[in-house]
Each structure stands twice: as C-alpha cells, then as structure tokens.
Write a structure and sequence with these properties.
- The chain is an alpha+beta fold.
- The chain is built from 14 helices and 23 strands.
- The chain has helices at residues 22-28, 48-59, 87-90, 100-107, 126-134, 167-177, 193-204, 236-249, 264-273, 311-318, 338-344, 374-385, 397-402, 406-411, and strands at 3-7, 12-17, 39-42, 63-67, 72-76, 109-113, 138-142, 145-149, 159-161, 183-187, 208-210, 217-220, 228-231, 251-256, 276-279, 283-288, 298-299, 324-328, 348-352, 355-359, 368-370, 390-394, 416-420.
- The strands form 6 sheets. The chain has a 4-stranded mixed sheet. A 4-stranded mixed sheet has the order 2-14-16-15, with helices on one face.
- Strand 9, helix 6 and strand 10 (183-187) form a beta-alpha-beta unit.
- Helix 1 runs parallel beside helix 7.
- The longest helix is centred in the middle third of the chain and has 14 residues, at 236-249.
- The protein is elongated and about 65 Å long.
- The chain binds uridine-diphosphate-N-acetylglucosamine.
- The site of uridine-diphosphate-N-acetylglucosamine has 21 residues, from helix 1, helix 5 and helix 6.
C-alpha cells in the first residue's frame, strides 16, 4: 500500500488550484439517472470516490465516460437495467445511497444496499427513507438491502420536514421530487453549497426548483427531464484544507478558484487565529507572516456553520497554536480518530465525548502515523508539514478518495512531500 512521506520545513509560497467538489460531484452523477438524455459534468475532480460512483452507475445500466483525463464526465441514463446497487460497490462509499431517490423517481423501483463509508459514526439512512416514504414510496429492509417501490402512477409531491439537517437525505429527496407528481416542500433542508449546485444542475435539465440554499426548498414535479452540461462547484473542503497549509507552515498561498462565500465561517475562525485571508481576482490568498497562531474554539454545524469536514484539519492547526482551544463536534459522534495519531506527533489533546481540548505546543515532531478516514488523513499531512523531522503516513487510500494529486499540489508551494508506491 502507498505511503506518503513528509519532511517538515519552512514557509510555503505559491498557488494551488482547487478542484471541483467531490461531494457535489457525488450527487450530480446520480442525477444522470433521472433522464434518458446526456448529462455532462465539467470541472469534475479525479478521485477514487468518483470512480466508485462511475462503477455503480455503470452497474445500473447508465453510460459513464471519463473524458479529458477525468475532468469531464459524460453520462447517459437511457438504458437502466433494473439491477440492484450491489453491496460490493456500495460498501466502499456511503454516497452510493444517492442513487435511491433518482432510481425510484425514474423507474418506480430500486434495490440499494445499505452503505458503508468512513467509520465516523453510525450514520444511518433513516431520513433518506422517511423523505421518500412521505412521497408515497414503500420501503422494506431485507438482507442488508433497501427494497423501494413507488406507488402506481409514481411518486407524489409531499410536505416533509427533516427532524435533523442531513445533506444526503436532502439530496435524495430533491432528486426524487423533481419527477414526482405535484409540489414537494422540503423543510429544515440542508443549505450546503453542494445542494445549491445540484439544484442548479437539475434546473438546467428542466426541473422546477426554488429556495435551494435556504432551509425550505419547493419543487414542482415535471414529467421528464432533458440533458444538460453543468460545471461542478469548487470544493470548499479541499479549499479550506489548502488554506490551512500556509496557516500551519507560515508563508503565503493563493488558492485558485477559492470563494469566500463557500468558507465564510471557517475564514472567520482563521481571522480570529491571526491568519489573513484576502480575495484576489483568481481566488483567495492566505498569509501567515509572523509568530504562532492564536488558539480559537470551534463548533461544527451544518452550513453556513463551521464544516465538520474541516474539523480534523483545524485541529492540526490548533496543535501548535498559542493557548488552549476547544473543538466541539456536533455532526458526527465519532470523529476524533485523528487525535491519537496527532498525539503520536507530540500534540496535547484530551477528548471527552464530542469535545476535544487542544493545548498548543511549540512544535510537533515527525512520527509514523496512520490515516483512519478521509479528513483525518489530510490533517496528519498538514501537521507533518510543519513538524520537526519526517512523518510517514500509511493507509493513504483514504486520502485518494477525496484529494487529487495532494503531493503535487503541496510540492508546488515548497512542501517536502512524496508518495512511495507500495505493492
Ligand atoms: C455529507 C458529506 C460529508 C459531510 C456530511 C456533513 C457527501 C458525500 N458527504 O455526508 O462529507 O461530513 O455531509 O456535512 O456529501 N443522519 C441520520 N439519518 C440519516 C442521515 C443522516 O441520523 O438518514 C445523521 C448522520 O448520522 C449525521 C448527521 O445526520 O450525524 C448529518 O449527516 P448528513 O448530513 O446526512 O451527512 P452525509 O450526507 O452522509
């Protein structure tokens, strides 16, 4: 298995291009199942999760071609074969559940394995099922699979209020509602930029949607959707991750394509820690010129709050901050697996339930560490960039799910980082 070796060094300087959002792409791809005309996505990230979704859609009969080195995905859902979304593919990635809503809306039935994915908590799919049931679907859980059936005449519009904010359940419900009969109102909907991006794409395909980006989304069902070409929104998590590189190491890095509206709450915390973020005509420039950063507290929340997907990376920054910070994780119950690995590098962290207390040290020390999930793995790389000596990160297949060419992007701004290919 591959390893990534990082040798801590001084300030970083240069620019990093930010890719299209993994999480947006993973919901835009299943939208291709909603139409028999082609859907083309541009600015797609080149990641193993995208290849997993490609394999899943192909297994369902959809055509998916990766063009221009994978940056363009040309898809067509005209030959769906009624196959089930098999456990062998679905277990690799939780976002596979996002084929449920589109399949049900388009073909009236779906059989989808219950998902696996990152080991960061129980992560049930009850809200996905409840929203689709509100539209008249019948659900049965059998042998680890969800067997879903639409009523005769298809799904019907419904008013559904999510008891808690869920990104994936909102996406599934939205994709189902566009082909349902009548009006659907989704209340307490997730407001993440990836959902707004999905709504924009669906509208290009002919859907009638209002209110995306707010907590109430209204959908007027249509009989059919057409084809479209849609650029995937910038990855705000990759953006935030690379913004933290100069914050940790010092220096100045311009993140190309970065937008403040995607990372507002995160930038506010960086500002409080003493990191300067400015908008340029090409993206966002992040600078740390002198001294240690200040300790700041963080509470993760649904968008527009501080994203849980940047909590691990922010913890890496806090490990060398001046003072003590509290990081409260409110989205997932088991998302501090990076803490013991950071402690192997000399970090001082105490975890009690959903709160981690980090007391900054002057400098971390390189060590062999192990990636436990996607965001945890990149937090170890960030920590290693500024640590004394060499850090060897194992199990980097987690990293490859969500970060394209991480070693190239960081080397380009002066980091000493290389991948050692394993057997
Ligand atoms: C998405 C993102 C993930 C991010 C998360 C929160 C994708 C592919 N993944 O995951 O990177 O960390 O949003 O921003 O976009 N829940 C239930 N029942 C359900 C669904 C969710 O109880 O049916 C709970 C979850 O366990 C969790 C919370 O709701 O505690 C939020 O999860 P959700 O927003 O659904 O996350 P995902 O869509 O899985």
């Amino acid at each position: 298995m591959d390893q990534i070796i990082v040798t801590g060094n001084g300030p970083l300087d240069g620019e990093i291009p930010i890719a299209g959002a993994k999480n947006a792409c993973l919901t835009l791809m299943p939208a291709a199942l909603l139409s028999d005309e082609p859907l083309t996505l541009t600015n797609a990230p080149r990641l193993s999760d995208i290849r997993t979704m490609t394999a899943l859609l192909q297994s369902l009969g959809a055509e998916v071609a990766a063009l221009q080195g994978g940056q363009v995905l040309a898809m067509a859902g005209h030959a769906l074969n009624g196959a089930r979304a098999d456990y062998d593919i679905v277990r690799k990635m939780r976002a596979s559940i996002l084929v449920l809503g589109p399949l049900l809306a388009r073909t009236g039935q779906a059989v989808v394995s219950l998902p696996g994915g990152c080991a960061i908590g129980a992560r049930p799919v009850d809200l996905h099922l409840a929203a689709l049931e509100a539209m008249g679907a019948e659900m049965e859980l059998r042998d680890g699979y969800v067997h879903a059936k639409a009523p005769a005449g298809g799904l019907r519009g419904a008013v559904f209020e999510f008891p808690l904010v869920s990104v994936g359940a909102t996406e599934n419900a939205l994709m189902a509602a566009v082909l349902a009969r009548g009006t659907t109102v989704l209340r307490n909907a997730a407001r993440e930029p990836e959902i707004a991006d999905l709504a924009r794409c669906l509208r290009r395909m002919g859907a009638r949607i209002e209110g995306e980006g707010s907590a109430e989304i209204t959908v007027e069902g249509v009989d059919r959707l057409g084809g479209a070409t849609h650029p995937v929104v910038v990855d705000r998590i990759e953006l935030g991750t690379y913004m933290l590189a100069p914050a940790i190491c010092g220096g100045s890095v311009e993140c190309l394509g970065g937008r403040i509206d995607l990372v507002g709450a995160f930038c506010e915390r960086l500002d409080a820690a003493g990191i300067s973020v400015s908008e340029t005509d090409r993206g966002l420039k992040v600078e740390r010129r002198n001294g240690r950063v200040a300790a700041v507290d963080v509470v993760t929340e649904p968008f527009p709050g501080f994203p849980t997907d940047l909590q691990a990376q922010m913890m890496a920054l806090m490990c060398t901050a001046e003072g003590t910070s509290r990081l409260e994780e409110r989205i997932f119950e088991n998302r501090f697996m990076h803490a013991p690995e950071l402690m192997r590098m000399g970090a001082r962290i105490e975890v009690h339930g959903g709160t981690a207390t980090v007391t900054g040290v002057e400098r971390l020390k390189g060590a062999p560490v192990m990636a436990t999930d996607l965001r945890a793995s990149v937090s170890l790389i960030l920590a290693a960039l500024a640590a004394e000596g060499e850090t060897v990160v194992s199990r980097v297949y987690h990293l490859d799910r969500g970060y394209e060419r991480v070693e190239e992007k960081l080397s380009a701004v002066g980091a000493k980082i290389e991948r050692v290919r394993g057997g």
